[in-house]
Each structure stands twice: as C-alpha cells, then as structure tokens.
Write a structure and sequence with these properties.
Layout: H1 7-29, H2 40-44, E1 46-47, E2 53-54, E3 56-60, E4 65-68, E5 77-81, E6 87-94, E7 97-101, E8 107-111, E9 115-116, E10 120-123, E11 132-135, E12 144-148, E13 153-160, E14 163-168, E15 171-176, E16 180-181
Antiparallel strand pairs: 1-2, 3-6, 3-9, 4-5, 6-7, 7-8, 10-13, 10-16, 11-12, 13-14, 14-15
C-alpha cells in the first residue's frame, strides 16, 4: 500500500476527489466542441506561478510525505504517502504548495520541496493482474525482454511516438505509453 489514510480522511478525500474530478471533466470537455482540437490535457495546460506547466507529472521525493487538505501546514493531513518515487500529477499551484493527484484520482496539497522533476511511472496500476510486455525496441513486434506486473515503479527516460523508454531494478526497455500512469498518452520528451 502506498499510503495510510484515516477513515474520516479517506471519506473526505474521496468526496473532494469526486467533486474535483467532476469539475475538471466539465472544464476539460468544454473546449472540445469543435473538430480538430488538441487533446484535452494539452488545451488545459497553463504556466503556473512556478513558471512550469500545469498540469504536469512529477514524483515524490521521500518515503513519507503528508498530503494536506489545503495549501498550508494549518490544514489537517488527509493521508500520507509512504513510497518515494511515486508519480503524481500537479493540477494546481498556490505559493510553495502544489495540489497533486494520484493514480486513483485522490487530490491533496504538498510542499513543492517534497516533489522532484524526476519522471517515473506506475505500470497499469488500474489492473489487478496480468502483465505488460517490456520490449528491446520501441515497436510492438520487437522482442520482449520482461513482463511487468501492475504497480511496478519505473524511471521514465524518454517518450516518443507512443513508446516510453523505462528502467528499474533489473529491467530496461520500451513500453507502450498507454500502459503507464505518470505520462500523458501523447506526451513526447527526452
């Protein structure tokens, strides 16, 4: 398990996440009225006060990070992440605070100093079982070097044309970009 919520905190965080997700969906779908538009996440990207784009993916810097229900230390802790390197999406900035979203859609606030620009991804965290092939080249017919199960944490070196070069403990290769949480489906970077 990557976090330890209290019962009340879990209910509150889920309610906030559902309301936030509904609002985000409405805002994301609004500009999609006409043909030939860019993907929703690309249209919603703005430059935050930090000078970096929002939304964007980052990772957790340490093994124990408290996620608060608001952007200050006066706000109560909603839950605590207990695994360094997990990918999260920054969806809002306020001063030195970043509103983050995890793969389950839960949102909360953390200090910016607890996050790093190191790109990581979780392999199919939405699946309970099964595997995803890791290939020697960025092609669907390339030789498979490993089969990665759900929730495997990987460093993402680059993504291009639907494939990401990833590495981790005992593996390195290319994986279908749609099988990862931590990168956008059409994102390209190196």
């Amino acid at each position: 398990m990557s976090r330890r919520p209290g019962a009340k905190a879990t209910r509150f965080a889920r309610r906030v996440a559902v309301l936030s997700a509904a609002l985000a969906l409405l805002l994301a779908l609004a500009p999609l009225a006409g043909p030939g538009t860019a993907p929703a996440h690309a249209q919603a990207t703005v430059t935050g006060p930090s000078g970096f784009p929002v939304p964007r993916f980052v990772s957790l810097k340490s093994n124990r990070i408290n996620v608060r229900v608001g952007p200050s230390q006066d706000h109560r802790i909603g839950w605590t992440f207990v695994r360094a390197g997990l990918p999260v999406e920054i969806v809002q900035e306020y001063g030195n605070w970043r509103r983050i979203r995890d793969w389950e859609g839960s949102e909360g606030w953390v200090l910016h100093s607890l996050l790093t620009g190191q790109r990581t991804a979780l392999v199919t965290p939405w699946e309970k079982e099964g595997t995803t092939p890791l290939r020697v080249e960025a092609r669907s017919d390339a030789r498979v070097t490993a089969e990665l199960g759900p929730n495997v944490l990987a460093r993402v070196e680059e993504c291009s044309e639907g494939w990401c070069h990833v590495s981790g403990k005992g593996f390195e290769g290319y994986i279908d970009q749609t099988r990862l949480f931590g990168v956008y489906p059409d994102e390209t970077f190196d």
